[in-house]
Each structure stands twice: as structure tokens, then as C-alpha cells.
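hey so u asked for the seq, here:
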Amino acid sequence: MVKNHGIVINSDLQNEICQIIKLNRHCWTHFSEYPSNFPSILQPKILNLPNFFLGSPVYMAGKNQSIYREMRNRSNDVLNLEIFSKFRQTVLDKLSEYHNKPYCHLEGTSLPGFHIFNSLGKSKKFSWGMMHIDSNIKSLETYANYDLDKIWSFAVFLETTDAGDYLEYEVGSKKFKHHYDRGVLYTWPGKTPHRIGDVILSTDSQYRISLQGHYYENDHILEYYW
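ran it, C-alpha cells below
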């Protein structure tokens, strides 16, 4: 279900990208700052989560599309830094080779970005028990008719925790765990119910950093977004 496409980034470049991400902490957005529609009862818990983004995933947009556009434009400016662009292109080239199709950025969406866990001033544990599917692109009116069977998700881990990092997913009534290795490109169908594995950060200086994104497999091209 989760496909391993091999290593797409060496350890030196992993470390360099992580260092740039850490130096640009002012560009991160905390989980609580997105216009998602979380029940008010969850707000105290959400504020304390060690969960940040460098980028604006569509699944955090909620129903306020004007705020999404503003956050998307701001984050895309950062994600177009040369080192991020080259890394993104390497990943997309690998996906293009696998599907034997060219690729393009899906118009009006955020570029694939970085999911960051760091406990400075926040909880050192993150557990998100909710299984979900990656159908959120359909919340944008332009893409409401997109076929869920053609949506794919991808991830590359750049820095991992001592406790190990994994994706938990469901096939039928069974649950599975897929553990991540640094620098490896992983993909899975967007319709697969899944969740982030529990994150345990042992110190304030520890991070869990990954590139995250999605793409839509059209007949003749892959359209990527986050």
C-alpha cells in the first residue's frame, strides 16, 4: 500500500535543508493559526501541539478560501527558494519517471511544503488518533469533481525522532504501520485511511521534519500541490 521509491536526497543535503528550515522559524505557521473548522472544545489542546508547517496545505484551509489564498501566496514565496525548488524537482522527477508522465503545479494551490514538529514552548508529545483520507483538494470549487482514485500522497523524511516515525493506515478492518527512513520517497493512494504516527520529542532541540505533498494523476500529466 505504501510504496518505497528509494533515496532521493543524501544526508548532507538533508541536513542543509533542515538547517535552513530551522533558521527560517519566523516563516513557520503553527497548527492553530490555520482557518480549519476545529470544535472550540479542542482549541486548548491544539494551541499546545508541537505541530508547525512551512507551507499552506489545502487540508488546513477550512472554508475560508480568501485566507487560504493569502497564506498560500506568502508560503509559496518561501518555498520557491532555490534549495527547496531543486529538492522538490528531484522528488517530482522521480514520480514522473515512475508514472511515465510529465508534471505541473496545480493552479491556485500551495507548493508541497514541510511538516515540522518541535516542542519549544509546546508539548513534547503528539498523538492524532483520527484516520482520514486525502480528498481535501475537492474542497476547492475548481477541483470539486476530481476523482479520489487519482489522488496520491507523498512524503520524504529529512529529520526523525529517536522514537521512530511511521504512518499508520487501514486496509479493510486491519491496521498497519509503515516506518519511515530518512531521505526516502514514499507514496500511497489518497483514498487510503491513514494518520500520522505518534510523535515523541525527547528534548526541545529535537525535530521531526518532512516534505509533504499530493498529486493528481491526470491522463497525461501529474498535477502536484499540498
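The chain has one domain: 3-225. Helices lie at 11-23, 43-47, 65-79, 82-99.
lmk if thats what u needed
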